[in-house]
User: Fold these one by one.
Assistant:
Number 1:
Amino acid sequence: MNTFLKEAAAVKPSERQLAWYDIEFYAFIHFGPNTFTDREWGQGNEPEEIFNPEKLDCDQWVEAIKAAGMKGMVLTAKHHDGFCLWPSAYTEHSVKNSPIKRDVVREAADACRRGGIKFGFYLSPWDRNNELYGTPAYNDYFCNQLTELLTQYGDIFYVWFDNACGEGPNGKKQEYDFPRYIELIRKYQPQAVIFNDFGPDIRWCGNEAGIARHAEWAVIPGELCKYSEVQTGEGPMAEEGDLSFLYNTSQSLGGLDNIIYSKGLTFTPAEINMSIRPGWFWHQEEEPHSLERLFRTYVTSVGANCCFHLNLPPTKDGLIDERDVKRLKELRALLDKEFGNKIPVAVTKKEGGFPTQPRYEITFDKPRNDFKYVILREDISKGQRVESFQIIVETRDGMNYPFYQGTTIGNRKICQLQDPFAGQNPLTKTIEYGASRLIVQVTSARDEVFMKSIEVC
Ligand code: FUL
């Protein structure tokens, strides 16, 4: 068991996964015929003429994205209706036959570059327009399109696939050749991360509502991620059970209870994705979600060992809706208010403790009761190791109170001690005379803990 835990602790991210963690918060852009037909899934028979965003301005998209502090954009180059936002040489169902005749992928990629943010694309394998769909030849068609996008639009940080798979005209489902798609991406854009339900680089969190798990492990059983690299041997109970019941909605994917039965572990972190509105595509009558909901999702994504991928759907004019722009600015202002002012602290690690149970003492410049968050970061480049921790507050009069109990940490854990939407946390009553120190006590870990930083704000 001990050897296996040490192996689990040493499962490491790739360079491209580390770069992805640093991007933290980025935008999805769902745009295409559905924007004009008021649908979420097109049928593939929409005439090209309907795609006519007369005021299209991708710089306005980038401005909105940056107003929220997001650092990248992922554009739906092709959604399930098969319509291409770039003039693909392999189909007539694209912008080249629309009234605007503009290469939206190029304009978006250029706008990202001008604005200093990353660019990536979504390419739906499910294509309801192409007649080859459902036959092996469709994989060639798909790879040709993928190659166009990978070779003609500069650096790509992200290729986002979804697993939706309908029936083609022959009534057959397509067998997607993911190993071939992955090979192409590695060949032309080796720094790009690839998303699919189960990796290889980034996996789906299991819902589209922005809901995170209580303990989000990036180190998970390879049984779930067949295209990710398995980095360990079998769990100690691999012969005495199996993990066939696991799905990406399961609560504790990487918990000890599961990994002991695993045939080997991979490093495959989750992305939390949701739309700013109920739909992925723009619909006039929909309103953006509340500031509270977006803020909470940020805390449970960027602040829970994931990244946050927030969709902003352009209107029929080809602009991000002003209602959404307003909400994005409010979100940024709130994030800056909550996390922008770090409280001066001195952090020392207590000498002589067990390597898997380090204790960090955080001393304030003066007794305080105005702190709201403790932000913990493991050095994820060395693996994800902490299983559980607690935060204890020491008051001026020398009393100790357990304040927060957490599970794993990973890249970043935002421990929320007070909530801007819920008023005063009853716990803060205990420190109304001021806390002089906080103690972060790791209570269990898979191997020696490497904490990268501890911040209080
Ligand atoms: C899903 C699609 O079916 C939705 O339309 C949307 O694009 C979402 C991000 O992925 O699988």
Number 2:
Amino acid sequence: MTMTATPDLMGAHQPAWPDAGALRATTGTLRWLPPLVEPEECAQLLDDLAAVTRGERVVLQAGECAELFTDSSPVRIRAKADQLYELGTRLRRTGRAPILVGRLAGQYAKPRSRPVETRDDGVEIPVYLGDAVNGRTPTVQARRPDPQRLLNAYAHAARGLRTLATGPATYTSHEALLLDYERALLRPDPFRGGRFASSAHTIWIGERTRAVDGPHIEFAAGVTNPVGVKIGPGAAPSEVSTLVARLSRGHPPGRLSLIVRMGPRHVDEQLPSIVRALGEDAPRVVWLSDAMHGNTIRSATGLKTRVLSKMIDEVEQFCAVLRAHGLHPGGLHLEITPDDVCECVNGDADLATGPTRYRSACDPRLNPKQADILVDRFSELLSD
Ligand code: PEP
Ligand code: MN
């Protein structure tokens, strides 16, 4: 049977699953599987995040832009969790205990700006949408969405969580993009009533799918987990206040993180009016700086890259604006890797030669040294 996605769902970046029967069978199986995370753990994260709104703790949410299924091995998960832990140690200088949240054990789906790409030989093929949807191999066949991959996503997330349970203390998170998957993993929350998203401790809604009356925000509004929403340069203050009212009222402080990803200039120009529009809701929100996604550019060689000095500018602007309004900068949301890559460059001058050693499945990540520099700068700003 052929299923074509409705225009509404295509706007929401849902894959055009070619076989509705296979999708139903997969989600039917997912509905009977145990939760990947426990409601007690999500409740603990909510408590931890409330302390961020009081200025007592600080968040580091970081990991891959797009995790691969092959990333779920103990060796890879441990390397990533160790990097988070070390960055957390750097944040301790602020006098605030860090809360570590990995883009880990479930970050397998990507919204893309274009549905197709052109191969070197001129053939147009569908884009890669993340391991939960299609394959990276650049062929039409591999790029066909396969609902069986949703089951594989569950299994790889479970494997990653097993490693995390053996020591590295980090919460998990991913973008709640694939609504079929996320809805199938809703489970009753025996403590707070209603249902929680059992795919991760916290989920966020991306910049492309955060329409106030869209299906992703409806999903986030219906779960008891802490949730995040990305806020880009196009976000109007009235729109953000509607989002905040919808997602945080009736919940304790810390339930909603606003993940600001505007680029340095826009933070300076637009964040103040957003903060003012939120009024009394502003101090109940966890304010995170995603200094990556508003800083993506194409290098001379056509690869996506980001300039570290611009990211530092953005974090500085972010802290300055929040402080000027009596609010706590709550932490960072980053794309990082423990590997020795050079996907982001240090300064504008490096754009002539870089990026090099490019291995990301999607966006350019900070290497360990670059991540240290950015986190150290944030720590310094918080200690001022
Ligand atoms: C991401 O976090 O990888 C992403 C796609 O971000 P955004 O929604 O902010 O563009
Ligand atoms: Mn990304």
